[in-house]
Automatic annotation (TrEMBL):
PANTHER family: PROTEIN RHSA-RELATED (PTHR32305:SF15), PTHR32305. Residues 425-544 form the Teneurin-like YD-shell domain. Residues 45-75, 862-883 are annotated as: Disordered. The keyword Repeat applies. It comes from the Bacteria. InterPro entries: RHS (IPR001826), Rhs_assc_core (IPR022385), RHS_domain (IPR053422), RHS_repeat (IPR031325), T6SS_VgrG/RHS (IPR050708), TEN-like_YD-shell (IPR056823), YD (IPR006530). Keywords: Repeat. The keyword Repeat applies. Pfam families: RHS, RHS_repeat, TEN_YD-shell. Residues 50-66 have a biased composition (Low complexity). This is RHS repeat protein. Gene3D superfamilies: RHS repeat-associated core, Serum amyloid A protein. Transmembrane segments: none annotated.
C-alpha cells in the first residue's frame, strides 16, 4: 500500500497452516519491521491447561470444557479463534543493534476468545476487561491501570441499562420507542428523542436536566443541518450534497460564514461575517503551500521533493525563512531560524525526545522509565529535576535539584485531592460528578462551591465567608451575579454580545459594536463623569487606534482626551505606534520581529545587539547610539540561560547575579552592596541579607502557611499570632486594619503600643470603593480633621483616568484646611500600559519595552511647550476663513478627509498625481495651498532612559548625554529606600505595572492597589481563585515574580523568554526550560473562578482589539472557557471544533513533557 507521497506499508501473510492468509508482519515506510504474533484458540487452550498443571493448585487442573479448543460461531459467521497476542519490533534501520527485548504490546484473552487484558512494553497491565459468562462477548466491566472498575448491567435485549462507577457518577438508561432517558446518581434526568433507522437514527430533541430543550435537524444522509438552542434560536449549516463539507453557517442573528474547498475537499477559503477572508492554497499533492490570514499576512511552505509530507521551510509575512530537518520517522531533528541559528533535537528508539541543543551551548536532557514517562530533566549545568508517578500514571512527586520534594495525591479517578510542598498542604474535595465542592488552604480554611443541574457554578463561599451567586439564562449566559449586597444584571444582543450591565439597578458599562461586529466603544459613569473608550480599525480588522475621553458631568464638555494610534508595515508587523501628541515610535526589527532598535520620529534613540539565541547582549542609548553611545549596557547569561550580569560603561549600576540549583535568584552583587536571598521550602522569600562596607543587615519575612504576612518572630518574639484564617490581616507592628464584607480594606489606623496612652493624634486612613471594588475615595484623618483627600476616576475597563487630591494647607486667615482647588492628574493608556501622566505643569509619557511592562523611554514636555504646538489643520483654517461675512463655513466630511490627506502629502513633500489633478480642477496649485498650511512647532522635550533591574523596576533615569538625572534604591517589595533627585523629576513607576500615589502611599497596579509595606493588595483579586488561592497576595517571591496587571503572578524569567521568542512560538514547545517544567507541574494550582465572564467581548470575530479592549473580564472569559474545558463542570467538554484544536495543542504541550498534573491548567 502506497500513499501519494510514495510512503508504503508492506504486509506479510502466512502462506500455510492454521494462520494461512493472516497478516503476521508489517514493514512501514521508514523501514521498520513489525511481527504480529497471532495465536489460535487451540494454542491458547493448551497454554492455559499447561499453566494450570504447573500452578500451585495442581489438584484442580483446567478441563477441556473450561477452555475449549474451538469457539462457536457468531451471527457474523464462523470464529476461527485467531487473535493478536503481541507486537514485536524486529528491525529498525535507525537502531539496528538496539531492539527491545519485550513486545511493544501484549494481549491476553478469556476462554471464550474475549480480550481480557492489555500490557504495555514494560509488562504493566494497562487495561482489563470482564465479561458476562452467559452472554459471550458482552463486556460487563473494564478498568485502566490504577483505576477502579466500571461496571455495566444489561437488559434482555442486550442494551446497557446501568453504568456503575465506584466513587464517581453512575447512570441508568431507560429505553422507549424513539426515546432514551438517562438518569445519573444525583437523580438528574436527560431525555434523548430520536428519529430515523437503519444506521440513520439521530437525536433530534434533547430534554436537559434543568427542563430546557434543544433540537437538531438532519438531512436524508443523517448529516447535521440545523440546531435550535433552549431559547428557540436556530443555527443552520449548509452542506455540499456530495462531500458533506460545511459550506456555510448561519447563526441566529443572520450572520453568515462561508467555506470554500478545492476538488480534493481541502478548505481553500473562509469568508467571515464581517466580510474578511482567510485563504489556503495547496500543491498538486494537496500539501499546504500558503496560508493567508484574515488580516492579509501570508505564510508559505516549501517541501524538499514530491515525497516530502512535512515542510522543509516556512516563510512568514516578513519574508523570514525557517528551515526544518525531519527524521525518517517524522521527528523534527533540526530547526534553523531566519538568522541561520539552529536548534537540534535527539530522540530515543521509542521516539521520546531525549535532548535539545540550542545555540550558545544551552542543552537540556530528558530521561524516561520503561513506560515512557518522563523521570528526569537535566540542564547544561547538570542540575536535575526528577519526577515520580503512581500506578495509574499520575504525577505524584517532583524532586527539585536541591532535593526539595513536592507531592500530589489523587483519588481513584485521578483527580488531585492534595498537594504538599515544604510541609504545607492544599486539598480539594469533589462530589460524585467530579465537581470541586471544597478547597482547603494551608491554614485549614475552606472555600465551598455549589452547582446547578447543568454543572454550572451557582454559589461560591470564599475562605473568608464572602458569598457570591450566579444565575444563567436558557443558553447558559450569565444574566445575574450577586456579590453580598451587590446585584449585577447582564444584558446581551441577538449575537450574544454583551451590551450593558446594571449594578443594584444603576447603569454600569455599555458596549457598542459596528456593522462588522467589531467593538467600537465602551462607556460608563465614574464619579458622575461619562468616561468612554473608542476603538478604530483598518479595512483588515486590525486595531489602529484607541481613544479615551472624559466628559464634564454637568455640561458634557470634554475634560480629557488621549489617543494612541498604531500602524502596520507591509509585512503586517505592528511596528509603529504614535502616542498622543508625540512623534511616532518606530521599532526597528530584523527577521520575524526581533528588536534591533527604536526611533522617536526621525531620531534614533536605542540600538540592540543580540546573541545567537536573540537574547539582548548590548543596549545603547543616546544621541550617539551605537559604538560611541553615552549609555551602553552589556548583558551576559549562564550556561543554563539565566541572566548572569548587567554591566554599564558607568560602573555604578553594574550587577552580577547568582542562582541556586533550583533556578532561584540568591544573590545580586553591585559596586556598593550585595544582597543575598533566602527562601522557604515552598519558594517564598524568607529573608534578605544586605552586605556593604561596615554593613551587614538581615531582614526576615514571615508568613502564615497560606502566605499572609506575620510579624517575624525574630523581630517580634512576643507575638503569638500564627495564622490569618480568613486571609484578612487585622494588624501588624504599625497599624490596625479593618475590612468590609467584600474583603476590601476600609480603614487603617496607627497602632498604639501596649502601655502607651492614647493622645488622639493617631492617623486613620479611610478607603471607599465603587460597585466594581475600585478605590474611589481616600482620606487620611488626624485629630478629627482631614490631612488629605483624593478621588479617582476610571474608564469602563478599570483603568484609572484621573485623580484629584486635596491637601491640608494654611489659608489666608491662618486656618489649616483642605485646599479649595485640587491637584489634578490625568492618565492616558495604550492597552494595559500607562503611557501618559499629565499634571497642571507637565506631561510625562512612557514607552515600554515591547511585550513587557518594563518602562524604557521617558519623555517629558512642559505644558507651555505643548500649547505652542496647537495649530489649525488646513481644513479647519479654510472653514474658519472661507466666508466673506466672517462666520465661517462647514465643509462636507469627504472634503475634510481629502484636505487632511492633501495636507499630509504637502508636509511630507510627496503630493500624489491624483491630488495635483484635483487641485488643477479647482484652479489651485500645490505651492499656493502650501502657504495656507500653518507651520508645525517642535516643542522642547526632555528624554531619559529608564535603567531597570531584572524585574523591570526603575533604578535610574539616564539623560541622552549619559548622566544620571534620578536614581532610587528599593527593597524587594518595591518600597523606596533612598532617592537622589537633583532635578526634581517625577518618577512614580515602581514594580512593573505599578505607579506610586504619594497621597496614600499605595501603588496603583492596574486592577487593584498594592500596599508595599505589607507586600499585598488592599482588595481581593478581581479574577478570584484564577489568580491564586490567596486573593490578596502579590507574588510571595518578589525577586523572581511580578504581577503587572494586579491579577496573577508571572515569572520574570518566563516573561523574558516570551519577549525574546515572541515570533517563534511554534517551536518553543520543543525546547522548554527547566522553569517551564517547574511551572507546568507546580505553578498555577487553580482551576477555579469566583465569578462568571465580565463580558462576552472576547467572542468577537478576530476584531484585533487589544487585551484591554475586550473588557476587564478578559481573564474571566478565559475562566468561563476553562470551566468547561478543564472539569469545573464535572467533565471535559469540547465546545467547538476550534476549541478542540486548541485543546489538542495544550494536550501536546503536556504530553511533550510526559506530565499531567490536574492542579495545573494546561
Amino acid at each position: 500500500m502506497a500513499d501519494r507521497f510514495g510512503q508504503t506499508l508492506t504486509y506479510r501473510r502466512e502462506a500455510a497452516g492454521d494462520l494461512a492468509g493472516e497478516i503476521t508482519g508489517v514493514t512501514d515506510g521508514a523501514g521498520r519491521e513489525f511481527r504480529l504474533v497471532l495465536t489460535t484458540q487451540a494454542q491458547r487452550a493448551e497454554e492455559a491447561r499447561t499453566s494450570s498443571l504447573s500452578s500451585s493448585d495442581r489438584s484442580r487442573p483446567l478441563s477441556a470444557s473450561a477452555f475449549p479448543d474451538t469457539l462457536p460461531g457468531t451471527e457474523y459467521g464462523p470464529d476461527r479463534g485467531i487473535r493478536l497476542s503481541a507486537v514485536w519490533l524486529m528491525h529498525d534501520p535507525a537502531y539496528p543493534e538496539n531492539l527491545p527485548g519485550a513486545p511493544l504490546v501484549r494481549y491476553t484473552y478469556t476462554e471464550a476468545g474475549e480480550l481480557l487484558a492489555v500490557y504495555d512494553r514494560s509488562g504493566t497491565q494497562v487495561r482489563a476487561f470482564t465479561y458476562d459468562p452467559q452472554h459471550p462477548g458482552r463486556m460487563v466491566g473494564h478498568r485502566y491501570a490504577g483505576r477502579p472498575e466500571m461496571r455495566y448491567r444489561y437488559d434482555d435485549a442486550g442494551r446497557v441499562v446501568e453504568q456503575l462507577n465506584p466513587a464517581g457518577l453512575s447512570y441508568r438508561y431507560q429505553y422507549e420507542q424513539d426515546r432514551i432517558t438517562v438518569t445519573d446518581s444525583l437523580n438528574r434526568r436527560e431525555v434523548l428523542h430520536t428519529e430515523g433507522g437503519a444506521g440513520l437514527k439521530r437525536v433530534v430533541k434533547k430534554e436537559l436536566a434543568d427542563g430546557s430543550v434543544t433540537h437538531s435537524g438532519y438531512d436524508a444522509a443523517g448529516r447535521l443541518t440545523a440546531q435550535t438552542d433552549a431559547a428557540g434560536r436556530r443555527t443552520e449549516y449548509g452542506l455540499n450534497v456530495v462531500s458533506g463539507d460545511i459550506t456555510d453557517i448561519t447563526t441566529p442573528d443572520g450572520r453568515e460564514t462561508k467555506f470554500y474547498y478545492n476538488d480534493g475537499n481541502r478548505l481553500t477559503a473562509v469568508v467571515y461575517p464581517d466580510g474578511l477572508e482567510s485563504r489556503r492554497a495547496y500543491d498538486e499533492r494537496d500539501r499546504l503551500v500558503s496560508e493567508t490570514s484574515r488580516s492579509g499576512e501570508t505564510v508559505r511552505y516549501r517541501y524538499d521533493d514530491a515525497h516530502s509530507e512535512l515542510p522543509a521551510t516556512t516563510t512568514d509575512a516578513t519574508g523570514s525563512t525557517r528551515q526544518m530537518t525531519w527524521s525518517r520517522y517524522g521527528q523534527l531533528l533540526a530547526f534553523t531560524d531566519c538568522s541561520g541559528y539552529q536548534t537540534r533535537y535527539e530522540y530515543d528508539r521509542f521516539g521520546q525526545m531525549t535532548a535539545v541543543h540550542r545555540e550558545e551551548g544551552i542543552s537540556r536532557y530528558r530521561r524516561y522509565d520503561n513506560r515512557g514517562r518522563l523521570t528526569s530533566v537535566k540542564d547544561a549545568q547538570g542540575r536535575e529535576t526528577r519526577y515520580e508517578y503512581n500506578a495509574a500514571g499520575d504525577l505524584t512527586a517532583v524532586i527539585t535539584p536541591d532535593g526539595n520534594r513536592s507531592e500530589t495525591q489523587y483519588d481513584a479517578w485521578g483527580k488531585a485531592v492534595s498537594t504538599t510542598q515544604g510541609g504545607l498542604t492544599r486539598s480539594m474535595e469533589y462530589d460524585a460528578a467530579g465537581r470541586v465542592i471544597s478547597l482547603t488552604n494551608e491554614n485549614g480554611s475552606h472555600s465551598d462551591f455549589s452547582y446547578d443541574a447543568l454543572d454550572r457554578l451557582v454559589q461560591q463561599r470564599g475562605f473568608d465567608g464572602r458569598t457570591q451567586r450566579y444565575h444563567y439564562d436558557l443558553t447558559g449566559k450569565l444574566t445575574q451575579s450577586e456579590d453580598e449586597g451587590l446585584v449585577t444584571l447582564w444584558h446581551y444582543d441577538e449575537s450574544d454580545r454583551i451590551t450593558h450591565r446594571t449594578v443594584n439597578g444603576e447603569p454600569a458599562e455599555q458596549w457598542r459594536y459596528d456593522g462588522h461586529g467589531w467593538l467600537r466603544e465602551i462607556s460608563h459613569l465614574s464619579e458622575g463623569h461619562r468616561v468612554a473608550v473608542h476603538y478604530g480599525y483598518d479595512d483588515k480588522g486590525r486595531l489602529t487606534g484607541e481613544r479615551q475621553t472624559v466628559e464634564n458631568p454637568e455640561t458634557g464638555e470634554l475634560l480629557w482626551q488621549h489617543e494612541t494610534k498604531q500602524a502596520y508595515n507591509e509585512q503586517g508587523l505592528a511596528n509603529r505606534v504614535t502616542p498622543d501628541s508625540l512623534p511616532p515610535v518606530e521599532w526597528l526589527t530584523y527577521g520575524s520581529g526581533y528588536l534591533a532598535g527604536m526611533k522617536l520620529g526621525d531620531t534614533p534613540l536605542l540600538e540592540y545587539a543580540r546573541d545567537r539565541l536573540h537574547r539582548e547582549t548590548v543596549r545603547s542609548f543616546g544621541s550617539m547610539a551605537g559604538s560611541n553611545a553615552a549609555y551602553e549596557l552589556t548583558s551576559t547569561y549562564t550556561p543554563a540561560g539565566q541572566l548572569q550580569s548587567q554591566h554599564l560603561n558607568s560602573l555604578v549600576y553594574d550587577r552580577d547575579y547568582g542562582w541556586n540549583d533550583n533556578g532561584d535568584l540568591v544573590r545580586i552583587s553591585g559596586p556598593r552592596q550585595t544582597r543575598e536571598y533566602g527562601y522557604s521550602a515552598t519558594g517564598r522569600l524568607a529573608s534578605v541579607r544586605t552586605l556593604a562596607p561596615d554593613l551587614d543587615i538581615r531582614i526576615p519575612y514571615a508568613t502564615d502557611p497560606a502566605g499572609n504576612r506575620l510579624q517575624d518572630p525574630e523581630l517580634h518574639p512576643d507575638s503569638t499570632l500564627t495564622a490569618w484564617p480568613d486571609n484578612r490581616i487585622a494588624e501588624d507592628a504599625h497599624y490596625v486594619y479593618r475590612h468590609d464584607e467584600y474583603g476590601r480594606l476600609t480603614e487603617k489606623t496607627d497602632r498604639i503600643p501596649a502601655g502607651v496612652i492614647r493622645t488622639d493624634d493617631e492617623r486613620t486612613h479611610h478607603y471607599h470603593y465603587d460597585s466594581q471594588h475600585r478605590l474611589e475615595f481616600y482620606t487620611r484623618i488626624q485629630h478629627g480633621e482631614p490631612l488629605v483627600e483624593s478621588r479617582y476616576l476610571y474608564d469602563p475597563l478599570g483603568r484609572r483616568m484621573a485623580k484629584r487630591v486635596w491637601r491640608r494647607e494654611r489659608d489666608l486667615t491662618g486656618w489649616m484646611s483642605l485646599s479649595r482647588k485640587p491637584e489634578v492628574t490625568w492618565y492616558g493608556w495604550d492597552g494595559d500600559h500607562l503611557t501618559t501622566v499629565q499634571t497642571d505643569s507637565t506631561r510625562i509619557q512612557t514607552v515600554y519595552e515591547p511585550g513587557s511592562f518594563t518602562p524604557l523611554i521617558r519623555i517629558e514636555t512642559d505644558n507651555g511647550e505643548r500649547e505652542k504646538t496647537q495649530r489649525r489643520s488646513l481644513a479647519e483654517k479654510l472653514q474658519q476663513e472661507g466666508s466673506e461675512d466672517g462666520h465661517g463655513v462647514v465643509f462636507p466630511a469627504e472634503l475634510v478627509r481629502l484636505l487632511d490627506r492633501l495636507e499630509g502629502e504637502i508636509r511630507a513633500d510627496r503630493v500624489s498625481s491624483e491630488s495635483r489633478q484635483w487641485l488643477a480642477q479647482c484652479g489651485l496649485t500645490v505651492e499656493r495651498l502650501a502657504t495656507q498650511i500653518e507651520p508645525v512647532y517642535l516643542p522642547e522635550r526632555k528624554i531619559h532612559l529608564y535603567h531597570c533591574d531584572h524585574r523591570g523596576l526603575p533604578l535610574a533615569l539616564i539623560s541622552e548625554d549619559g548622566n544620571t538625572a534620578w536614581s532610587g534604591e528599593y527593597d524587594e517589595w518595591g518600597n523606596l529606600l533612598n532617592e537622589e533627585n537633583p532635578h526634581h523629576l517625577h518618577q512614580p513607576y515602581r514594580l512593573p505595572g505599578q505607579q506610586h500615589d504619594e497621597e496614600s502611599g499605595l501603588y496603583y497596579n492596574r486592577n487593584r492597589y498594592y500596599n508595599p509595606l505589607l507586600g499585598r493588595y488592599i482588595t481581593q483579586d478581581p479574577i478570584g481563585l484564577a489568580g491564586g488561592w490567596s486573593l490578596y497576595a502579590y507574588p510571595l517571591n518578589p525577586v523572581n515574580g511580578i504581577d503587572p496587571l494586579g491579577l496573577s503572578p508571572a515569572d520574570v524569567a518566563l516573561m523574558r523568554k516570551k519577549e525574546q521568542l515572541n515570533h517563534q512560538r511554534a517551536w518553543d514547545i520543543l525546547s522548554d526550560t527547566y522553569d517551564d517544567m517547574k511551572r507546568l507541574n507546580l505553578g498555577g494550582t487553580d482551576q477555579f473562578f469566583h465569578c462568571m465572564a465580565f463580558c462576552r467581548v472576547s467572542k468577537l470575530n478576530d476584531a484585533g482589539v487589544s487585551r484591554s479592549a475586550k473588557g476587564l473580564g478578559y481573564e474571566k472569559e478565559i475562566r468561563d472557557y476553562g470551566l468547561n474545558m478543564f472539569g469545573m463542570y464535572g467533565r471535559k467538554v469540547k465546545l467547538s471544533h476550534s476549541e478542540m484544536i486548541e485543546d489538542n495543542k495544550k494536550d501536546l504541550a503536556v504530553n511533550e513533557h510526559g506530565l499531567t498534573c490536574p492542579f495545573t491548567q494546561d
